[in-house]
Amino acid sequence: xxxxxxxxxxxxxxxxxxxxxxxxxxxxxxxxxxxxxxxxxxxxxxxxxxxxxxxxxxxxxxxxxxxxxxxxxxxxxxxxxxxxxxxxxxxxxxxxxxxxxxxxxxxxxxxxxxxxxxxxxxxxxxxxxxxxxxxxxxxxxxxxxxxxxxxxxxxxxxxxxxxxxxxxxxxxxxxxxxxxxxxxxxxxxxxxxxxxxxxxxxxxxxxxxxxxxxxxxxxxxxxxxxxxxxxxxxxxxxxxxxxxxxxxxxxxxxxxxxxxxxxxxxxxxxxxxxxxxxxxxxxxxxxxxxxxxxxxxxxxxxxxxxxxxxxxxxxxxxxxxxxxxxxxxxxxxxxxxxxxxxxxxxxxxxxxxxxxxxxxxxxxxxxxxxxxxxxxxxxxxxxxxxxxxxxxxxxxxxxxxxxxxxxxxxxxxxxxxxxxxxxxxxxxxxxxxxxxxxxxxxxxxxxxxxxxxxxxxxxxxxxxxxxxxxxxxxxxxxxxxxxxxxxxxxxxxxxxxxxxxxxxxxxxxxxxxxx
Length: 515
Ligand code: ATP
What we know:
Elements: H1 2-17, E1 21-23, E2 35-37, H2 39-58, E3 63-65, H3 75-79, H4 82-85, E4 87-92, E5 99-101, H5 102-128, H6 134-140, H7 142-163, H8 167-176, E6 193-196, E7 200-203, E8 211-214, H9 220-225, H10 227-234, E9 240-249, E10 264-274, H11 279-295, E11 304-308, E12 318-326, E13 329-340, H12 342-351, E14 357-359, E15 364-366, E16 369-376, H13 377-388, E17 389-393, E18 399-403, E19 414-418, H14 425-436, E20 442-444, H15 450-460, E21 464-468, H16 470-475, E22 477-482, E23 488-492, H17 493-504, H18 506-511
Parallel strand pairs: 3-9, 19-20, 19-21
Antiparallel strand pairs: 1-2, 4-5, 4-6, 7-8, 9-10, 10-16, 11-12, 12-13, 13-16, 14-15, 17-18, 21-22, 22-23
Helix pairs in contact: 2-13, 5-7, 5-8, 7-8
The structure holds adenosine-5'-triphosphate (ATP).
Adenosine-5'-triphosphate binds near residues 267, 333 and 334.
């Protein structure tokens, strides 16, 4: 645990030091669980958004985009169930006065059991070497089987109690498992209560006529209420999807995990409208497709897993998370939900307007079913950033800090250095920057020795460093250094653009989804 915490602390301080993420309003001591993206962070975020948009909208003939407003008519949230049911179960520790999400306390307890399983697996893998069969070990090792059964039983009971809104049983479970406050070690808990996560605000100038509004807690509802407008104007036929990215707001009870759980965050969501009865098939397809998107970034298959939900939200008939191995363990990164016709039917009921599709093949009207994919842009950012940050031991015994962000998403693609600040080298380096910047984010750096400039760009996540030296003036070549391998090549200046392009081209990365 301590090691994991250290890693996470490093991630947070590196994000600040290298201009990725700052605490919001830091000069006023910050605002809890609200963050600003700095010069590099804004670029990384933009690139992730584009990587998603290309995969979802541009490459799918049957998906179109939308950019709905954050403010929506307040009845939207009555209809969607958020006013009545968008709650988290909270529990306070009477001694430390710390507040927790009751379900997260239990899930973290289960997380500890899962780490024990992982430890057993690691031990056995070492013992058996090449002959190790993980699947068989998980199924037959008695200790592991017992752990797994224990974890499953706890999660099942939690899911059932939450579904029945039996908050007394959630408290009982916490007591039975003897879960202690992580801050104080105390087991002196209050009852579990529901807490609505929506932020309220007002629209209009005068106090008596102002309208109560909510800041949207998800982007999905903007898609549902526009469903028919988009379908008609785009002449889409079912099955088709609508995608959008945008801010969402949740008054999270506990928000102590940097940009993992924020009060203002960005979602990238896609609602896919299908014929009733075909939702299971589409749900499986989208699960597979979304996992392929993640794997295309090459961050390691072992770092992802599916988690099928025991407890289903009020609108869903199936739901799964794609979980990622964050520095604090496996946690939800993306959700894939089969939402039935719940949302469209409710909006139909509350608005009195028909939200039906006329199926020309079947010659009838129906309310489509919806399968959604929903990922937090900030969580994706954290997944990439934390997984990319490495301390490497070099052959000469020194270490380097390197941010191995997939090149396609790196904020700066190349840094160009003159070896020395004279003899016309800065001018040639600047010429190269001026040419490359039409296609890529590139920077010019002439400060310090070249070795230090390399380290700075490694820590910044820049995939290429291009050095201009005296030979460059004679034969129009430069050295290009690769961040991940530290390998250096002498190449013609005319070839630099092509070399960078080959490694950062979105097409090549996204095509891996088809492998
Ligand atoms: P959690 O269980 O972690 O609170 P959730 O199940 O409520 O998440 P969804 O409502 O399914 O999340 O939202 C879809 C996605 O939006 C999540 O998978 C996550 O990536 C992102 N997300 C949700 N809440 C937050 C938040 N407070 N901060 C950052 N990202 C979030």
